[in-house]
Design a protein that fits this description.
The structure holds 2 protein chains of 2 kinds. The mean pLDDT of chain A is about 90. Chain A has helices spanning about 1-20, 25-55, 60-75, 75-90, 105-140, 145-155, 155-170, 175-180, 190-200, 205-235. Helix content of chain A is about 80%, strand content about 0%. The longest helix of chain A has about 35 residues, at about 105-140. In chain A, helix 3 runs antiparallel to helix 5 (about 105-140). The model of chain B has no long low-confidence stretch (mean pLDDT about 90). Chain B is α/β, with parallel strands linked by helices. The chains are: A mainly alpha, B alpha/beta. Chains A and B meet through helix 5 and helix 6 of A and strand 5 and helix 4 of B.
Chain lengths: ~240, ~220
């Protein structure tokens, strides 16, 4: 009974935070959405064609490619963050770009984390359709590049789920973005790092409210993706 | 002209395709027959370039098209599937008209807007045939293209294939298990067994006077007078 009341209080707080004109909260939501969408988009642009092309092709070292990709799918965020931190720190090779503790640095770390996930899942999804599609398309004289485009189109419903998985990882990630973003107020603070900060300050109500908003955000993006998938399914069946 | 020399392909421990020499002239229609696993599909796939031989050479003059045994049906409409066969050679309204014309030839024009996934096995095979015939080719490589089609349509589509080949002067290699189809469609016949060509020659000559014991045994099962 008591826990139910506490939950209701938290949800109430979440909505009063959302619609209470809290400038910092909206700024945090903005940075979170921008960073997550941008890193997912870049990762999809790299990972989807790469994964589908690898799923279609038979090349020497394909097994190694898949094993390396699958290993990188489990890359610890802190390791990715550390890698980007070292690259962008003042003494690092890209230190002169002064990107450390910026949203760009956070996007770079996220792309390193998400691209293997998107690539690996795309390989396994496209491989199941690739054999017959490749034989049919090659038989019609369709070249390799167009075969990859056709395969991307044929797998689009499942690839939306792949993109969503990437977005889910981006929006919920904390270790890497904390390291390279620095959790700077009004600059690089995102939902997850804000939750960490509020929890460490003992401000649990605020932290839970942020968590609820984060879930709400994920629900909205999932719903949009679900509608897109349903639309594609209707077209295909 | 199709030329094959010293072709070798090891598929598994117990199957090896071996074709020392095979020449097929332009405009010839060749039926490839033989039991399951005799190498008909492997030979056609190598000719189509979808699998590479271990050794030996294959040469085909002109543009060829290959219809595999289980062709892929692309998502979307029947019309879209047929348009894919044009491979960019026609666009816009021309592409649509060519695809509709091809569908008309296989009597599927009323299904042009239907989803390809909703077609029956035989209808899907007719659609894939339309996808192949939507464009002119010098050489047709067909792997059991009418296996799922009913008898009535089989006859119609055999005539369609004949007309297409004669009309466009194209060469055709077709694998089949149907004796009547092999005889009615081909000018020459290849009988395969265990990865080797047992018989090759004019269809009626081979059927009447097979050279090998195995060829004779195989043709006895056909019971064609």
């Amino acid at each position: 009974m008591r826990s139910n009341i506490i939950m209701i209080v938290y949800i109430k707080q979440a909505f009063s935070l959302l619609f209470g004109g809290d400038r910092e909260l909206w700024q945090i939501i903005g940075v979170t959405v921008r960073m997550s969408l941008l890193s997912t988009l870049i990762s999809c642009l790299i990972g989807l064609p790469l994964g589908v092309a690898a799923g279609r092709a038979n090349f020497r070292g394909k097994g190694l490619f898949i094993r390396v990709t699958n290993t990188l799918m489990g890359l610890p965020p802190v390791v990715a963050g550390l890698f980007v931190f070292m690259l962008l720190s003042r003494s690092g090779p890209f230190g002169s770009l002064k990107l450390l503790f910026s949203v760009t640095a956070m996007v770079i770390a996220q792309v390193i984390l998400i691209t293997p996930i998107i690539t690996g899942l795309s390989v396994s999804i496209s491989s199941s359709k690739a054999v017959r599609l490749k034989e049919t398309a090659a038989g019609l004289g369709i070249g390799s590049f167009r075969q990859v485009l056709l395969l991307l189109s044929e797998c689009r419903v499942q690839l939306i789920s792949v993109a969503l998985t990437g977005f889910g990882r981006a929006v919920s990630e904390v270790g890497a973005v904390q390291l390279v973003g620095g959790n700077i107020q009004f600059k690089t603070r995102v939902m997850t790092t804000a939750i960490m900060l509020e929890t460490s300050k003992g401000n649990f109500e605020f932290a839970v409210a942020l968590g609820i908003i984060l879930l709400l955000l994920a629900f909205i993006f999932n719903s949009v993706a679900y509608i897109m998938q349903e639309k594609f399914n209707d077209r295909n069946q | 002209m199709i030329e094959i020399s010293n072709l070798r392909k090891q598929y598994s421990n117990d199957f090896r395709l071996e074709v020392d020499e095979l020449n097929i002239n332009d405009g010839e229609r060749v039926a490839i027959v033989g039991p399951n696993g005799s190498g008909k599909s492997t030979l056609l796939r190598i000719l189509a370039g979808t699998i590479a031989p271990d050794s030996g050479g294959v040469k085909i003059n002109g543009e060829s098209v290959f219809l595999p045994q289980n062709p892929y049906c692309f998502q979307g409409s029947v019309l879209r599937n047929v348009r894919i066969g044009l491979n960019g050679s026609a666009k816009g309204r021309d592409s649509r008209e060519a695809a509709l014309e091809a569908l008309k030839r296989v009597e599927l024009e009323k299904y042009s807007g239907k989803k390809a996934s909703g077609l029956s096995g035989g209808e899907a095979q007719r659609m894939t045939l339309a996808r192949m015939l939507v464009k002119k080719h010098e050489c047709l490589l067909l792997d059991e293209p009418l296996a799922a089609v009913d008898i009535e349509f089989c006859r119609k589509l055999e005539n369609l294939l004949l007309d297409f080949c004669v009309g466009n002067g194209c060469t055709m290699l077709i694998s089949t298990h149907l004796p009547v189809q092999a005889v009615s469609l081909s000018t020459k016949i290849i009988i395969m067994n265990n990865g080797r060509i047992e018989e090759f020659g004019n269809t009626l000559d081979v059927i009447k006077h097979p050279n090998t014991k195995w060829g004779k045994m195989f043709l006895e099962q056909w019971r064609i007078d």
